[in-house]
Amino acid sequence: MTVKKICCIGAGYVGGPTMAVIAKQCPDIQVTVVDLNEARIAAWNDQDVNKIPVYEPGLSDIVAEARGRNLFFSTEVDKAIDEADMIFISVNTPTKTYGAGKGQAADLKWIELCARQIARVSTTDKIVVEKSTLPVRTASTLRDILHHTGNGVRFQILSNPEFLAEGTAVEDLLEPDRVLIGGDQDEEGKTAIEALVNVYSRWVPRERILTTNVWSSELSKLTANAFLAQRVSSINALSELCEHTEAEINEVARAIGTDSRIGPKFLKASVGFGGSCFQKDILNLVYIARSYGLTEVADYWEQVIIMNDHQKKRFANKIIRALYNTVNGKKIAFLGWAFKKDTNDTRESAAIYVADHLLYEQAQVAVYDPKVVEQQVYIDLDYLATRSTEENKTLVTVQNDPYEACKDAHAVAILTEWDEFKDYDWQRIYDSMLKPAKIFDGRNLLDKKKLEEIGFQVHAIGS
Ligand SMILES: NC(=O)C1=CN([C@@H]2O[C@H](COP(=O)(O)OP(=O)(O)OC[C@H]3O[C@@H](n4cnc5c(N)ncnc54)[C@H](O)[C@@H]3O)[C@@H](O)[C@H]2O)C=CC1
Ligand SMILES: O=C(O)[C@H]1O[C@H](OP(=O)(O)OP(=O)(O)OC[C@H]2O[C@@H](n3ccc(=O)[nH]c3=O)[C@H](O)[C@@H]2O)[C@H](O)[C@@H](O)[C@@H]1O
Questions:
Q1: What domains lie within the chain, and their CATH numbers?
Q2: Which residues contact 264 (CB under 8 A, 6 or more apart)?
Q3: What ipTM was assigned to the predicted interfaces of this complex?
Q4: Per-residue model confidence as pLDDT tens digits over 308-323
């Protein structure tokens, strides 16, 4: 079967970039990305491609090339579903905030709504692809809904989890380590798998396209994120030990990373991992394991989250301690608010939690981030519901100029590893700060020796 029309439900950080790349690489396939969020679709359609809602290096060029040719963004969900022969579901699957599984299980409300909508409007056979990250066995729910329409339309369900990382989405999509496709192992299932393999194989070497049964594919996505996050928590755990023993975490990371069995990636100690997925997916894994009565398995993975929470809190406490145990009324400049560099995404960013902890102690926080807009900072803090919106507005300012953010500050904290921070005029920043001027480098980004020569007191992670 040759795919001619693709519909993707969900125009977010995954749906937008993945579909833009499919459209770029497959000019003969019409790709329509739909979303209920009108403002988001309007932004994807903005004449000025620099105003698309997801900031990713290289993405605006791809959108400019394909949009209007074979890439479309629309709010007409029913129409796009009915016209497509392959439908990707790429909607959000956040942690449940209510009811059974609150705080751990994935909220599959939006997934189920999509399945019901597909069941309701489809008049021709479809391949439905799980692109969202889902608990293992979700395909059985989709199957139950889609196979009981009674209108004779046939559906095949595939799992095709996405492994892109934000900030490098375009290169990850153009040159993925692997593409994973899970499907039923009968004839119809294999035909559906092959149809999707044929889309990716236009640009991904065939040997990098792995095919499995649906359940392995669903579980592999949660597992990959759990392993990656576990590495960060492992190195962060040791960063604390380094701070007590004069060992240097960067040196330890290099020493272990050169062992080819361990490998050098994902060993950067930090203020803690953030992002929309690591925490949510591990909590989901923990919940699934518990639901099967696997207490030891659940406890094992939960520790990754416990360690991460500890690291964020530890960083905030370190600032408070170094500022003589009181930050009340003291200005602390935050360089970075996004959860990592090269993205405007702030979901679960460590910066939010560090700020919240300092605000609890009545600090004055001045935030500068090259890509995060002012309103987002307040939305993130208000979401925690720790204090009133007015109080957040009083205690936190958002600056467009990093030098302004650092002026008259008692301390500067690096929360995101934006490259530009390395090139700032640190002498100028030092001169404008209160003394002793302190830097808390939550990313081990800056040149500690140079800063100390200027006169800063530098506190790095694991050093
Ligand atoms: N953000 C990332 O880097 C990655 C995310 N994922 C997974 O991909 C999924 C999507 O994540 P994001 O793109 O970050 O989420 P997002 O929140 O940026 O985008 C989801 C979009 O789906 C839309 N939506 C929800 N229900 C809808 C419906 N019934 N009809 C039409 N539109 C609907 C929302 O309005 C929203 O714009 C999640 O399951 C996530 O775990 C997987 C890999 C990477
Ligand atoms: O499912 C997802 O959403 C995605 O989650 C992560 O991607 P992402 O969260 O975008 O970014 P990462 O590069 O993984 O970074 C996650 C967090 O860990 C932190 N990190 C990462 C690496 C490291 O060595 N140290 C460290 O603190 C980052 O600063 C960031 O806060 C995975 O890397 C992707 O493969 C996956 O598709």
A1: 5-212 (3.40.50.720), 306-460 (3.40.50.720)
A2: 253, 254, 257, 258
A3: 0.98
A4: 999 999 999 999 999 9
* CA separation for the pair 284, 131 (Å, rounded): 17
Q: What ligand 1 atom has the least distance to the C-alpha of 91?
A: 22
Model pLDDT for residues 322-337, shown as the tens digit of each residue: 999 999 999 999 999 9
Q: Which of 131, 96, 136 lies closest to 114 in space, CA to CA? A: 131
Q: What residue ranges line ligand 2, CB within 6 angstroms?
A: 133, 162-166, 225, 228, 232, 266-268, 270, 273-278, 339-340
Handedness of CA 267, 269, 271, 272 (dihedral sign): positive
> Which listed residue (24, 126, 131, 162) is catalytic?
162
Q: In 3D, which of 158, 170, 169 has the Cα closest to residue 196?
A: 158
